[in-house]
Automatic annotation (TrEMBL):
Belongs to the prokaryotic sulfate-binding protein family. The keyword Signal applies. This is Sulfate-binding protein. PANTHER family: SULFATE-BINDING PROTEIN. Residues 1-22 form the signal peptide. GO terms for biological process: sulfate transmembrane transport. It is found in: Periplasm. Its main location: periplasm. The keyword Signal applies. It comes from Caballeronia calidae.
Amino acid sequence: MTVYKKRLIAAALGIAANIAYADTTLLNVSYDVTRELYKDIDAAFVADYRKKTGETVSVRQSHGASSAQALSVTQGLQADVVTMNQPNDIDLLAERGQLVPANWRSRLPDKSAPYTTTMVFLVHKGNPKQIKDWNDLARPGVQVVIANPKTSGNGRYAYLAAWGYKKQQGATDAAAQDFEKAIFRNVPVLDTGGRGATTTFTQRGIGDVLVTFENEVGLMSAGPGAKDFDAVYPSVSLLAEPPVSIVDKVVDKRGTRKEAQAYLDFLFTPAAQEIVAQHHLRPRDAAVLAKHAGEFRPLKTFTVEQMFGSWQKAQQAHFADGGTFDQVVADKN
């Protein structure tokens, strides 16, 4: 046997040994605009877990519109954990197939939401249309880019934020719906997810204003395109508390509960909270938040529970078939 063949065999055996040694692989099914966040968190978790346990864990990521991702999990996508942008998408896992228990919110701190964000605006440099608040989105001649509330939690938050803004001004539900109609008449395209909406606005050059999560605006404002865009904070907005959960049926089937639980627990540690802040999301850890206080502007917010009673009520009234959003879009057409 030649030396070359010996080396090939040794290399093949080494690869096989490495594959056999890969202790556990987790799949994190997440929403559209968290690719960069979880890339950094995954690397930090893998290193931390190996240091603490001596075991090797790898984490794969899947990203897309939040509600579409949740539906994929109910249809068989083998997610060990889900990190969604609104509770309805995890409630869906409980309702369809009992993949998680109904009390999933109570299993981790802060209603299982390791960070918060809110809805703000991204406009072209200099803000040529002088867009300052939600009322400006309804003005004739203003093009608004918003993700589709039917498929995207990002779009849902935007819709509910606008509705809540109008209600806080004393509007009736009928007036709030008319306000939504005026806004969505200005929406040229409904992308299925938040990152698609960002691409439409920043790369395709469509629209005068993008309505999206604060962290997505922060990413654009701090990136290569910072010279082209400005962030605008409205007078009031909706507090987003993106939740996370183990997918119980999957981890018990795969034998990955211990690793999946460690992964979600890691999200609440100071190390992960620092990564959260660096990605323009508001950390839950008070010390980390204080450290980055200069980045996060004070903003008056309200919650879905305060304005709509619960996520379930908001979903049924606004986004179920025949709800207010369907009526808004029908009027647009």
